[in-house]
TrEMBL record:
UniProt name for this protein: Dihydrolipoyl dehydrogenase
Enzyme Commission number: 1.8.1.4
UniProt cross-references to PANTHER family, sorted A to Z: DIHYDROLIPOYL DEHYDROGENASE, DISULFIDE OXIDOREDUCTASE
Positions contributing to NAD(+) binding: G190, S191, G192, V193, I194, G195, L196, E197, E213, G281
Note: The active site is a redox-active disulfide bond.
Record-annotated Pyridine nucleotide-disulphide oxidoreductase dimerisation domain positions: 356-465
Keyword Flavoprotein among record annotations: yes
Cofactor(s) this protein cannot do without: FAD
């Protein structure tokens, strides 16, 4: 006999598990279905983000950063460290522990909030009596029924045409997080978030890393001034990035991989490497959802078609996160998950796409919110800009990390903050102040007038706001 629920969430990633918890908090009898398995076959909710994305990559970035500090920067502090070695297996083991802690944390939250969890693949069976039957294919097959369905099935790595992921030589983000030893030569295709973060991890550990990027500009979505500053830092570190390339044939063998490509000058080149990480974007994951069984509308990319409030083409069926339009970011999925649960309850869930922060967790970190200078120019918006370098920040000097700057963009007439862009230490944490300010329609002057702790990196934010009015105090 089918189990009946008010809300059934398909997918336990950031969008799905958060939607389920919020729905349960609002008094709905809620179920969440997720098929991720750990190495013992047990449930591993958290989606790509927790299992093969945000969380494990940050664990490896942290480990590799410690290794680089010990090798290259401890001496500046008077700390002697010789013959520093990396145990890659132990590093990967620590990463796996961090992932499991997050998996277990989500299962605990389901129990705490009385969310019924089903371990298996969820798919539509049929519409029935104002509800939907959902098949759960796990150890045993069962069917549950929900009045409201929230689809949060995420995305998958996009493969190069004709070059399948084997996760041994040709790696997606999944395989890139499970490399067993430091490759002598590592190639990456795509210089986006995943490419730069994974490239940074293995470069720090000793790999000779080359990133091939098809676009002629570096980090085209990032403010141009910030992207140039970041590129300068990566070049100095030895992270090689070739722009404007056209990738041709990719051959794999027992020795590794060979990539034929044409460089920006039109010259034929070959790059040989031990491993290749492909990070050319992600595609919505709707395979196996059986959308056609209920007539759920998909677009040409396979994404679920939704309106501004995440309603699909079907009554009481919603979709959030990577499987719908908008940026493929875990925190965007979470906000949509909360908003949908609240809309089901008759409330007014809110997601402001203009104030979603973006972060690249390299060193230096890159973070931004709002529009870039090039976007404002293209939109014909009159603006003022202010920048402040971490080189002039006391806390950054004490940390020994003075790369980068904070940049403010404000409306020329009203002084409203239109964008904040940061490259430098702890940019991921500093950007939150800008998000709050923009949500409250703050002006650059508002930030300039707020007292910031001294010495702190956040003073660079205040000084950049002061710079909009050309009155920095420390530069």
């Amino acid at each position: 006999m089918s189990k009946n629920f008010d809300v059934v969430v398909i997918g336990g990633g950031p969008g799905g598990y958060i939607a389920a918890i919020r729905a349960a908090q609002l008094g709905f009898n809620t179920a969440c279905i997720d098929e991720w398995k750990n190495d013992k076959g047990g449930p591993a909710p958290g989606g790509t983000c927790t299992n093969v994305g945000c969380i494990p990559s940050k664990a490896l970035l942290q480990s590799s950063e410690h290794f680089e500090h010990a090798n290259k920067h401890f001496a500046e502090h008077g700390i002697s460290a010789s013959d520093v070695k990396i145990d890659v297996a132990k590093m990967i083991g620590r990463k796996d522990t961090v992932v499991k802690q997050n998996n277990d944390g989500i299962l605990y939250l389901f129990k705490k909030n009385k969310v019924s969890f089903f371990h298996g693949r969820g798919s539509f069976a049929k519409a029935a009596d104002g509800a939907y039957e959902i098949k759960v294919a796990g150890k045993e097959e069962e069917t549950i029924t929900g009045k409201h369905i929230i689809v949060a099935t995420g995305s998958n790595a996009r493969a190069l045409p004709g070059v399948a992921f084997d996760e041994e030589t040709v790696l997606s983000n999944d395989g890139a997080l499970r490399v067993g030893a430091v490759p002598k030569k590592l190639a990456l295709i795509g210089s986006g978030v995943i490419g730069l973060e994974m490239g940074s991890v293995w470069r720090r550990l000793g790999s000779d890393v080359t990133i091939l990027e098809g676009l002629p500009t570096f980090l085209g979505a990032v403010d141009e001034q910030i992207a140039k500053e970041a590129k300068k830092a990566f070049d100095k570190q030895g992270l090689k990035v070739e722009l404007g390339v056209k990738v041709g044939e990719v051959k794999t063998s027992k020795k590794g991989v060979s990539i034929a490509y044409t460089n920006a000058k039109g010259e034929a080149q070959t790059l040989d490497a031990d491993k290749l990480i492909v990070s050319i974007g992600r595609v919505p994951n709707t395979i196996g959802l059986n959308a056609e069984a209920v007539g759920l509308k998909l677009d040409e990319r396979g994404a679920i078609v939704v309106d501004d409030e995440c309603r699909t083409s079907l009554p009481n069926v919603w979709a959030v996160g990577d499987v719908v339009r908008g940026p493929m970011l875990a925190h965007k999925a979470e906000e949509e998950g909360v908003a949908v649960a609240e809309r089901i309850a008759g409330q007014h869930g809110h997601v402001n796409f203009n104030t979603i922060p973006w972060v690249i967790y390299t060193s230096p970190e890159i973070a931004w919110v709002g529009r870039t200078e090039q976007q404002l120019k293209a939109d014909g918006v009159a603006y003022k800009a202010g920048t402040f370098p971490f080189l002039a920040n006391g806390r950054a000097r004490a940390l020994g990390d003075t790369t980068g700057m904070v940049k403010f963009l404000a409306d020329a007439k009203t002084d409203e903050i239109l964008g904040v862009h940061i490259v430098g230490p702890m940019a991921s944490e500093l950007i939150s102040e800008a998000v709050v300010a923009m949500e409250f329609k703050a002006s650059a002057e508002d930030i300039a007038r707020i007292c910031h702790a001294h010495p702190s990196l956040s003073e660079a934010t205040k000084e950049a706001a002061l710079a909009v009015d050309k009155r920095t105090l420390n530069f």
